[in-house]
Amino acid sequence: MSRPLLSLTAAAIHNDGGQVVLRDIDFKLDQGEHVAILGVSGAGKSTLLHHLQQRAPERIALCPQQHGLVDALSCYNNIYIGGLARHHWWYNLINLIRAWPKNRREIFDICALLELDDQLFKSVDQLSGGQRQRVAIGRALYQRRPIFFGDETVASIDPIQAQRLLKILQDLHHSSVQVLHQRQLALDYCSRIIGLQDGRIVLDENTAKLTLSDLDALYES
Known about the structure:
The structure is a single chain. The chain is of the alpha/beta class and 221 residues long. It has helices at 45-53, 75-80, 89-97, 101-113, 129-142, 159-172, 183-189, 212-216; strands spanning 6-14, 20-29, 34-38, 60-63, 147-151, 175-179, 192-197, 200-206. The chain folds into two domains: 1-59 and 149-221, Rossmann fold; 69-144, no CATH class. It has eight helices and eight strands. The strands form two sheets. Strands 4-5-6-3-7-8 form a six-stranded mixed beta sheet, sandwiched between helices. The radius of gyration is 18 Å and the shape is globular. The model has no long low-confidence stretch (mean pLDDT 92).
C-alpha cells in the first residue's frame, strides 16, 4: 500500500489567534482523491485546509478564499505571481515592466482556458467578482504543483461555469482538497466528502455512498 500524500492523527488544530478550533482530527489524502470539506460557517473548514497546505506547501497549489489579488496590477501580472519562485528577482522585475514572450504565451493559454483571454492586460480592479475569482484560480494553476487546494474557489461563479472549472482543476491536478458550500457540486465532482461540526470531523465517506440528505445533517443546529 502506498503512503498517503498527507496525513493527520488525533491532531488539535489552532486558528491564527492560538485557539483550538478542531480536535481529534484524523485525515489522510491519497493520490487520485478529490476531497470536499463541508460544514457551517465557522466550523473550521478554512483552518483545516490551510493547516494541511502548510504541511506540504511545495506540492500544493493554494487558491485562498480572499484571492490575494493586487488591484493595481493586470490580470497577466496577478497570474504571473504564481510563478515568481521559479525565477530570479531581476527576471521577475523585467517581466513586470514588459512581459517575456514565453510567459505571455503560457499565461494567455491559462486565461483562454478560464475564458479570461480578452482581459489579459486589464487591471483586476476593473473585473467582476467572478472574473477576479478566475484570476485567482489562474494564479494557482501557474504555480504548477500536482495537488490543488481551494477555499470556496467557485463561490462567486455561476453553476455551469463552476462545474466546468472544477473539472479543469481536477484534470490538471492528480489530487485536490476543496472547501465548498455547494453540496450538489461536492457530490458530483468529488470522490470523498469530509463534514465538520462542533470542532470535529463527523463525516468522512466516499461520495458514492452519500446523498444530499446526508449532507443536510451537517447544517442542522
